[in-house]
């Protein structure tokens, strides 16, 4: 076998496979650049380099569809879907990486990449090189020979079949020389080359075996009987054309010689910079190891993923005294990594293992083995550190507080930092992030053989928790550097991190619940559900499972012969919106009672869920999520307090069960919320003089807008008019279309469009602002709040209309809703400082949408209300005032205003 080995790659074929094999939403940089095709192509390349170890390497790309084949047959490759916009840019990035690797990218005007590869492969074989072609195009099988092997992806992008002549014959029943004839007979759908109807691979292979090759088959076409023979004779011209077009050319005049493809001329600095730009930390490490193995050493890892980041240091297991001595020896102002096995649920938490790391030292301790005195000393020692680094810190801090490690000051939560970089990611797993951004592999703890984590204090668990503490410091450094580049570091340090500390205190405090009131509601909602159910049965004369869509379809569309709703895979939809539309059309009592049954059943389930989350202290401790909503808004779980309805009487009664805790010396609850904050931000950002004047004059916004849109005096704006403009005003913030507005208001699309046109005619600056927001986001790739919180929206350039329009709605919504979220967080930070400075007992308990709930100490209402109004009202400098509504009472509902 030759000592020289030539590896040829069909660049477009492999990049395209990678694009569709890897989900784009999982592969993007912090600046929104989609990288799935680049990542997949490079992974395939590294796999091929490792397996084949070539001395020569070249990659061929197509230049476009204008080839000699298209000139002969205008329908060649017609019908192929338009290449996605975010694929084109990735091809250029692939070429840049290949350039840094010293790999020639070869193209030829008027010819396809297959022809380039065929020519180079033929030259390589003639020069005695062991030649391999990586291609996802089956036409390449005609090149397979003793000297040329086709590496064909059989699954994904890295699993390659070695298509030798024997493999081709085994798979298709023909030699490589005859594969071209087989493809001409069968046709090639991908190239829009129709074959002989009814002739498959087996029939084609049989004819080729019988008559030697395709010219032989065509020469004996009259001898082939049956329907297949007749079809062949009817399509001889198609087969001959296919045979001409699928021949790969092996004699092109190319701009490079084989000597130019010698592998090893690597620009390590340029390669490292590109990998850094693409945030391919782990891939960079893999490439560096591979190149070293090939004798092509050089630093190719991205910045922040140096050699010291490869191996996690060994963790030293310490006792209490050893830990205190270790902490005393550390720099209190340098980053100190903290990790644990902390668990927190329903108001109680536990932590067994604590890992700490600074510099190249990592240690672990079993907290259960520490005496109360040692634990208190550890808490004091940790309290002097000003730069603690953790991942998903909030649940750990709550568990630490219950274990006696209270008052820790976290400088950077790497989960929050990663979220600010890519707020649309599905998850922010520590291991994945350290691998991606630092090239660090954090091995998980050993399992017990059943897949369950071994949480006992074993050496493996100690190494895992200590390694995580060490890795999180490196991750914090990498993420903070990227946030500094994108302008998001201030949001992390000045908003999200201090706000996290407030959430810890709020979640630990929880809110008191009147369990008796919950029990009463449960009985009442149960009785109401039964009454609605029985009334629904009476309306149709028999019982039916009201929770079964199939049974409801029979009742509605067969028994009652109602108008059909939207068709689904399982019949006609029976969702709430469709049933509400049917009720408007028919007024049938069955529908009225069915909807009432659904509503009250949902309320009952809400009450059951609340009761299940009451902790032993009689309080509900919801958990707030900072990294779920891409706009920066909070959500909550266990229970989700944002799901409690407030616009219905029944929903308001649920809020009556949340009360001030008199047993702990609290008198009342106070609620405070912003009035129309998103519309005020809209007025400020758009600079619309009419809206600004209305807010500054203290007018009712929706009546003011209604008077302008409908052309009537403010005092003649009817409730229906006001409702319409309110829905429209808030809809604009969310990118609502005329169609969406029509559905929401249950009016015609033309009426909805006329409403919007009237609005924009009178508030032109709003229209200009909304258009400008989308165009700026399209140009920059992201939107930004008033405080620098970014949301990257690469889908704004998508060629798929629905995807693009969804991104446009997000571009409209993110700056306004995100700014509102930032202002609320800033306000709560100021309220917290104000309450502490005043020395009052009162404390914040909840944040739901634009409202905060405070538990009041006795006699503190007037003072606390003043603090809150002042802090919330001054949280942002807008061209309109921030109006704050405050109320108080025994329950959450009593405190409504």
Automatic annotation (TrEMBL):
Gene: polA
Keywords: DNA damage, DNA repair, DNA replication, DNA-binding, DNA-directed DNA polymerase, Exonuclease, Hydrolase, Nuclease, Nucleotidyltransferase, Transferase
Cross-referenced CDD domains: DNA_pol_A_pol_I_C, H3TH_53EXO, PIN_53EXO
Record has Cell cycle as a keyword: no
Natural source organism: Brevibacterium samyangense
PANTHER family listed in its UniProt record: DNA POLYMERASE I, DNA POLYMERASE NU
Domain 5'-3' exonuclease: 4-264
Enzyme class, broadest EC rank: transferase
Ranges for domain DNA-directed DNA polymerase family A palm: 651-860
Stated family: Belongs to the DNA polymerase type-A family.
Function: In addition to polymerase activity, this DNA polymerase exhibits 5'-3' exonuclease activity.
Protein name per Swiss-Prot or TrEMBL: DNA polymerase I
Enzyme Commission number: 2.7.7.7
Catalytic reactions on record: DNA(n) + a 2'-deoxyribonucleoside 5'-triphosphate = DNA(n+1) + diphosphate
Family matches, as Pfam families: 5_3_exonuc, 5_3_exonuc_N, DNA_pol_A
